[in-house]
Amino acid sequence: MRHGKKFNHLGRKPAHRKAMLSNMAASLILHKRIKTTVAKAKALKLYVEPLITKSKNDTTHSRRVVFSYLKDKYAVTELFRDISEKVADRPGGYTRILRLGNRLGDNAEMCMIELVDYNENMLSEKTTKKKASRRRGKKKSTDTPKVEATTDTKVEEVKEEKPKAKANKAEPKAEKSEPKAEKSEKKDSKEEKKDDK
Question: Are 97 and 165 members of one domain?
């Protein structure tokens, strides 16, 4: 019975699976991103993230434990020297899986697995974005009443003008004649300004 065996066997026997994950983890550490299938990437994520966490504590014991998994001294050196410094303040979640679509030959789901702190494109976007708050913040009490007061008075003025227009039909004609009078006054004032010059 396979009770509690949640990890993906990846269609391989244990020795083959461990060797494959070890090689993929070493490649990920050395190259910072690799292209693989989604199933292998998820299995690799479970395999490599505890090793990255262990690299934060640079002792001989932790180096030997990591080496027993990776079996590549160059990858261990890279992990403890460079990667551990970059991920020092990150509390987990060191890798990111980006889906790329399906492979042509067998239609397998492909993806790119990468170390989060080594993708400059995502890091630059992160710095430019404004941090969104999760709670709804209170607005300033001084600003909002002024805005509401001005909109309310404009609405009341508009409402008052419309019923007057409906009540007397003669008034709109008078209102139309008033703008003409205003235009003639404006022309007169312009002419006076020209005469002054």
Answer: no
Rounded distance, CA 7 to CA 131, Å?
36
Q: Render each residue's pLDDT in the chain as its tens digit; 197 residues.
A: 989 989 999 999 999 999 999 999 999 999 999 999 999 999 999 999 999 999 999 999 999 999 999 999 999 999 999 999 999 999 999 999 999 999 999 999 999 999 999 988 877 776 666 667 677 766 665 555 555 555 555 555 555 555 554 555 555 555 555 555 565 666 666 666 666 65
How many beta carbons lie within 10 A of that of residue 39, not counting itself? 14
Two structure tokens written together for 9: 């066997």
The residue written with tokens 């941090």 in the block is: 131
Domain containing residue 71: 14-120
Give a yes or no: residue 127 inside a domain: no
Tokens (6 digits) for 25: 């983890």
Same domain, 102 and 166: no
Of the candidates 79, 103, 120, which is a domain's last residue? 120
Residue type, 99: R
Burial class (CB in 10 A: 0-12, 13-18, 19+), 79: buried
Same domain, 65 and 112: yes
Assigned domain for 2 exists: no
